[in-house]
Amino acid sequence: MINRALFSLFLLFISTQFGKHFFLPFSYLSGVRVDYLAPTIYLTDILILLLTVFNFKIVLKFFKNKKIIFGLSLLLINIIFSKLPEISIYWSIKIIELLIIFSLAKKILTTLKEKYILIVLLISGSFQLFLSLTQMINKHSVQGVFYYFGERLLSLSAPGIAKASLGGVELLRPYGTFSHPNSLAGFFLLLYFFVLTYKKFDRHLALKYLLLFISSILIFISFSKIAIITFLILNTSYFILNTKLKDCKICKISRIVVLFAVSLIFFQATTDPLTVSKRIELIKNSVEIILHYPIQGVGLGSYLIEQAKFSSKFYLFFNQPVHNIFLLFLSETGFFLGGILLYQLINRLIQQRLTKEQWLLILVIVFTGFFDHYWLTLQQNFLLMGLVIGVSLSRS
Predict the structure, then answer these.
(1) Is the model more confident about 138 or about 248?
(2) Cα 226-381-20 angle, rounded to 5 deg
(3) What is the pLDDT of residues 30-86, one digit of tens each?
(4) How far apart are the first and last CA of the chain?
(5) pLDDT value of residue 324
(6) Mean pLDDT confidence for 174-187
(7) Residue 209 and residue 95: Cα distance in Å, rounded?
(8) pLDDT over 70 for what percent of the chain?
(9) How many domains does the structure of the chain reveal?
(10) Is there a contact between 188 and 218 (Cβ–Cβ < 8 Å)?
(11) What are the CA-CA distances from residue 347 to residues 73, 172, 340, 361, 382 (Å)?
(12) In sequence order, which residues have a C-beta less than 8 Å from that of residue 40 and are 6 or more positions away?
């Protein structure tokens, strides 16, 4: 009973970011407060701690694995050589937290029925859709009670706010309770393909398609071009790979055509015209950091400390990590730790002999991860990645 309640609350609040930030002396760069350098305790962290207590045997068995112990021991080396050991300790704890969710993924499936999981995720998705549409229509944040779910203070006139211009009308790209619209899009993109490919959800088609519809809307209204392109490519691939002779081919082609037609509307929107230049600057910085610290890296979570040493053509852009999870990972772990962990991960995936549906979930993270950093830096995306991959691999 307790497990069911905790798992339900975790799924319900995984898309929120209600938490307490601790801005310590090292959380400031050039006098500017940076969230990425502030240790934070989220509501979901507390739920994971409680889940660990009530499922201690499962978690302990998972962490007794020799490869897990070896990987965690490498984190100690990373902390020792870190530019900011305090923040590296914090992110080492976050990795342990991710592994806990990974270890409990199968338990969630056996504890909660598929219908119940869909209902909880529908409530969460509907909440995000309502808040996002309200933000976009009003062109500012709602605040009030939504502040406690993690909604940021938003306004079209505020500097650094994500905007889009469509048909001559300037729009606020909705954030929901996320740190950025791209993060919102990535979250619901991964959730979309998880729900789409998990066959047991087919027992409740009405709930499944409603959740897919809500997720699709959130992906589109985020105006995240990378998320929309990934959405189109992987949806088309999924429909082609799962088309059988007896299937209605016209129906599936129609669905693809409709997706492309809707996408064209959002592709016409103009977002940040300098986004390519900014990302190229960050990539150059990350490559220099990797070349300067090739063996040990700068330490988990310490990337911004080193990047702040570079000059930037863009105001306050030094407080943004490189928009590529692979460059960010190697910058912080180096080729020694990072190389070992990547080898173990790739080897594990090969041994699992993943199905085409499981590869779709991996590709969501890989495709979007080439152009953004939220899978490694933001709470909601980080935990969803661990949960979905854990559930996916537990089926192998």
Answers:
(1) 138
(2) 130
(3) 888 899 999 999 999 999 999 999 999 999 999 998 888 988 888 899 999 999 999
(4) 27
(5) 95
(6) 96
(7) 33
(8) 96
(9) 1
(10) yes
(11) 19, 43, 10, 17, 21
(12) 19, 20, 21, 22, 379
Q: By C-alpha distance, which of 182, 177, 247 is closest to 219?
A: 182
CA distance 373 to 145: 28
Contact 185, 222 (CB under 8 A): yes
Inside any domain, residue 188: yes
pLDDT at 245 over 60: no
**Tokens 């519809």 appear where?**
213
Kindly indicate the confidence band of residue 220, based on its pLDDT and cuts at 50, 70 and 90. very high
Rg (CA), the chain: 21
Copy the structure tokens of residue 211.
């959740």
Residue 360, in any domain of the structure: no
Q: Which pLDDT does position 39 carry in this prediction?
A: 96
Which domain does 168 fall in, by range? 120-273
The answer, yes or no, to whether residue 250 has pLDDT greater than 80, is no
- The residue among 146, 210, 133, 205 whose CA lies nearest residue 174 is 133
Whether 24 is covered by a domain: the verdict is no
Q: Whole-model pTM?
A: 0.94
Residue 58 lies in a domain: no
Look at the block and give the residue holding tokens 């529908």: 122
What amino acid is encoded at 89 in this protein?
Answer: I
Q: Are 299 and 290 in contact (CB under 8 A)?
A: no
State which amino acid sits at residue 52. Answer: T
172 three-class SS:
strand
User: Are 108 and 321 in contact, with CB atoms under 8 Å apart?
Assistant: no
Neighbour-count burial for 212-242, b at 16+ CB within 10 Å, e otherwise: bebbbbbbbbbbbbbbbebbbebbeebbeee
